[in-house]
Amino acid sequence: MNDSYASVEPSRSEVDALSGATLIEFGAPWCGICKAVQPLLAKALADVPPLRHLKIEDGSGRPLGRSFGIKLWPTLIFMRDGKELSRLVRPDSTDAIRRELEALVRSAH
Q: Is 42 inside any structural domain?
């Protein structure tokens, strides 16, 4: 699990070209809800095989977040081979995150 938000974001074309399972987490380091989700996310990620986790600092005018239509933080985007499979906005339980991660891992088979 990535602990800090990347302030330099990849382009949408770079994200769309990623192969395999990817979790993109949009948020901000000062966001209280984002901070509250971190232990839930860490626990859920510990229960699944390792996967790419991009933790992107979002904000006004940030092109990657806008391309995904991000409105609230944190938003988790679950992708396989550059395609969005699902998303969770402001998840409030480890189980909800784990279910989406397990579905993402299963989609490889």
A: yes
Q: What's the CATH number where 48 sits?
A: 3.40.30.10
- Residue 13 corresponds to which tokens in the numbers above? 């074309």
- Contact predicate 87/35, CB 8 Å: no
- Domain that includes residue 38, residue range: 12-106
pLDDT tens, residue order, the chain (109 aa): 778 898 889 999 999 999 999 999 999 999 999 999 999 999 999 989 889 999 999 998 899 999 999 999 999 999 999 999 999 999 999 999 999 999 998 887 6
pTM for this entry: 0.94
Whether residue 2 is contained in a domain is answered as no
Which residues, 6+ apart, have CB-to-CB distance to 46 below 8 Å? 1
Dist. CA 30–CA 96, nearest whole Å: 23
- Please tell me what DSSP assigns to residue 14: H
* Domain presence at residue 3: no
* Number of domains into which the chain is organized: 1
Tokens representing 3 are 């602990």
